[in-house]
Amino acid sequence: RLAASRAASHEPAFMTDGTRIEVVANLGGPADVAAALENGAEGCGLMRSEFLFLDRATAPSEDEQLEHYQAIATGLEGRPLIIRTLDAGADKDVPYVGLPREDNPALGMRGVRMSLWQPDLLRTQIRAILRVEPFGQAKLLLPMVATLEDLRRVRRVIDEEMQSLGRTTPIEVGIMVEVPSAALTASQFAREADFFSVGTNDLTQYTLAMDRMSSHLADQLDPFHPAVLRLIGLAAEGAKAHGRWVGVCGSLASFPKAAPLLIGLGVTELSATAGAIPEIKALVRTLDRKRCAEIAQEALKCESGEAVRHLVATVWPEV
Ligand code: PEP
Ligand code: MG
Fold first, then answer.
1. Which residues are near ligand 1 (CB < 6 Å)?
2. Which atom of ligand 1 is nearest to the CA of 143?
3. Which residue's alpha carbon is at the smallest distance from atom 9 of ligand 1?
4. Which of 19, 146, 235, 250 could form a Cys-Cys staple with 15, CB 3.0–4.6 A?
5. Among the atoms of ligand 1, which is closest to the Cα of residue 202?
6. Cα(169)–Cα(308) distance, integer angstroms
7. Interior/surface letters 250-289, b for 16+ CB within 10 angstroms, e for the rest
8. Cis, bond preceding 134 (omega within 30 deg of 0)
9. Distance from first CA to last CA of the chain, Å, rounded?
10. How many CA atoms lie within 13 A of 235 on its CB side?
11. 22 φ, ψ to 5°?
């Protein structure tokens, strides 16, 4: 185990070659901020806004949302806050939206698709996010983007609400890379999205065509699978071509073993559960970027997720 001292966990993490890796936290709401900061989070890479929308009879108003987002932004004391727009549908049911009954909800009206199907809900949420102070701290992240048209349609709503609020400085808008199409066409998305955040939970589900809710497939649903890593590599290449950055906010980012591979594929931000942050930072400080890139290329040639983990354990026995 790597020694992760408390003091060091509050410092930024630089690799041995000087590359900085941002280590941030996933948050579900204001109650999670304290633990994130105690563990040394440099901000929030994924705020899952859906928790504010679940288990209630009607949607939260613009002011209620603003209060919620502002509490998180204020709690983070100026550190970056990436707010994901409502990612409902599939396993996260929001009854008042009146989603259609579908045979395959994971392939149906969920994430940004649901938002575009109910644009009033999206519009209200975007307005609340645009009102968070100081402007620029909060960034927008769109879930389940599969086509450029998804992104363009949301951008139109953002532009309209920016105008109506008299905002002239643009807000940063990123997409979740969690559908294989987004990774495969990353260089096109990178022209129009400010950053990418890889959702390895859904990316693994859709790449391996294994339902993340299925208990029968749970041991095969492996985010270390080389097919998933390849798609992350493609996302990073596409982003780099347009000077965009790539983070990972799915559960893969919380496994220290994944950090050298993700960094080696070109990822520069890891958004993890708070408790994993000190160890990830301690590990990052021992890594060399060139070496990570070499091993990541080897990992892509492995035949299974298990082989990938074995490779990492051979090269970095301490993780
Ligand atoms: C993911 O899919 O990896 C992700 C971060 O989003 P969620 O788990 O909320 O679907
Ligand atoms: Mg997801």
1. 46, 48, 87, 178, 199-202, 249-250
2. 6
3. 48
4. 19
5. 2
6. 43
7. bbbbbbbbbbbbbbbbbbbbbbbbbebbbbbbbbbbebeb
8. yes
9. 6
10. 33
11. -85, 130
Q: What ipTM goes with this model? A: 0.99
Residues 264-298: pLDDT tens digits? 999 999 999 999 999 999 999 999 999 999 999 99
Strand extents, DSSP E, 40-194: 44-48, 81-84, 138-142, 173-177
Q: What value does the CA radius of gyration of the chain take, rounded to a whole number of Å?
A: 19
Token pair recorded at residue 171: 């807000």
55: left (phi over 0), alpha (psi -120 to 50) or beta: left
Can you state the angle between helices 200-208 and 226-241, rounded to 10 degrees? 120
How far is it, in rounded angstroms, from Cα 194 to Cα 294? Answer: 27
Query: What is the tens place of the pLDDT at every residue in 224-237?
Result: 999 999 999 999 99
